[in-house]
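User: Let's play a game. I give you a shape written as tokens, and you guess the letters that built it. Ready? Here's round one.
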């Protein structure tokens, strides 16, 4: 009597589970892409309180756009690809064409491994940015990182890998390429246009080196007219980034509240009363928006209807 070879349940169900996770990821990133392209605000249950940095702040940050397109669009395409890799072999019945299905399985397992590694490394970098730069809580971002890691783990345990060296070699190559590519893509975010050089003047900060266009000046005046405020600290490099986007002339038109007691014309009492937790933070129409904001985002939040031909608008913010 010939006994059938036992197949672990994870080997039988790994592809459907990976496909389901990828489908969830595609739905999440598809929703975020739609909201980003239509200018909507995403639902975010973790945004507790008016001064909480959350999903909208993350999606409006300079890390949320690459190559002029929403980052979530590329996430959607990545999840869609992973779903196809996971489920494609299941569409071929083993009894109909065993050889073709076997070849497709081998190819797609390798593609799943490469995709899982790349997405996990990229998500890891974004988690670092979320915690160290944006300082926000974004359930969608955390869920996406968990999806990526889960798909990678399922790919590793979902089949019997005969050549463990292949896994190690693929992980090293794909991981390094992904990390180097990620750093190259986001390099403009810390480029000379935004990053302050040297030490700030005590109580004042770094000198603004950019000039203002008509659109920047119009927007700054509009923000002042509607009572918008920017809470800042003289030593804050991100506050300097915001200055650079407006330019020297336009920035003088803004209503700036210095939160550090050692700063020029400091009003730490107002910052405390407003519940400011990080710099810069904008207060527009009674709502707080932490972090550096793109000028078009400020225009949208404030109801600005003038020219949006902003001069100081580096590629990293487009």
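Assistant: Ready! My guess for every position:
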């Amino acid at each position: 009597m010939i006994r059938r070879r036992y197949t672990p349940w994870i080997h039988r169900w790994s592809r459907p589970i990976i496909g389901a996770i990828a489908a969830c990821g595609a739905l999440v990133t598809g929703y975020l892409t739609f909201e980003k392209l239509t200018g909507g605000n995403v639902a975010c249950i973790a945004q507790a309180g008016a001064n909480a940095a959350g999903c909208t702040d993350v999606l409006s940050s300079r890390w949320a756009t690459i190559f002029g397109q929403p980052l979530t669009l590329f996430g959607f395409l990545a999840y869609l690809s992973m779903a196809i890799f996971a489920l494609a072999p299941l569409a071929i019945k083993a009894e109909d064409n065993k050889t073709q299905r076997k070849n497709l399985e081998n190819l797609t397992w390798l593609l799943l491994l490469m995709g899982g590694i790349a997405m996990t490394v990229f998500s890891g970098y974004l988690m670092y940015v979320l915690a160290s730069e944006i300082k926000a809580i974004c359930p969608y971002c955390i869920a996406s990182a968990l999806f990526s890691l889960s798909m990678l783990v399922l790919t590793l345990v979902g089949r019997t890998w005969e050549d463990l060296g292949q896994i190690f070699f693929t992980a090293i190559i794909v991981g390094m390429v992904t990390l180097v590519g990620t750093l190259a893509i986001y390099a403009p975010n810390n480029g000379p246009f935004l990053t302050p050089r040297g030490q700030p003047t005590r109580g004042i900060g770094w000198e603004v080196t950019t000039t203002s266009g008509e659109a920047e000046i119009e927007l700054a005046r509009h923000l002042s007219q509607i009572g918008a405020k920017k809470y800042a600290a003289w030593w804050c490099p991100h506050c300097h980034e915001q200055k650079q986007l407006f330019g020297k002339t336009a920035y003088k038109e803004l209503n700036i509240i210095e939160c550090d007691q050692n700063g020029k014309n400091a009003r730490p009492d107002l910052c405390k009363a407003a519940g400011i937790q990080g710099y810069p933070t904008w207060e527009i129409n009674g709502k707080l928006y932490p972090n550096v904001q793109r000028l078009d985002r400020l225009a949208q939040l404030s109801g600005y209807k003038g020219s949006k031909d902003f001069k100081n608008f580096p590629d990293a913010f487009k």
